[in-house]
Amino acid sequence: MVFECAGNPAAIVEGLDYLKHGGTYVEYGHYVDSGTFECNPNQSLLRKNLRLEAAWGFESNHFIRSLRMLEKHADLFKDFVSHVIPLERVGEGVNALHAGYHLDGRDAIKIAVKAHTG
Q: What predicted TM-score, i.e. pTM, was given to this entire model?
């Protein structure tokens, strides 16, 4: 399964290459027209027998379905996020991404904001 959320057409080509036979490709990263990409449908889509999911904008049923897929396969994504920070530290996280990609003495790869639960 590949979730493309970068908004760069080159990421689509890269993401399609990662998929194995019967994989699912989810596209939620192109909210503005950022250009085109070259695709050989026979090799990139059909021979792999892929499932494609895509939505423009926020449609709750697509979003909920995506969240369920992410939750079901959460163990596959655990190494993608280097830091989980509370909302109060978002400024620090943004600063880290603009100044050396370090936060709390570690490399910042992807920073997630922890949901406030009350």
A: 0.53
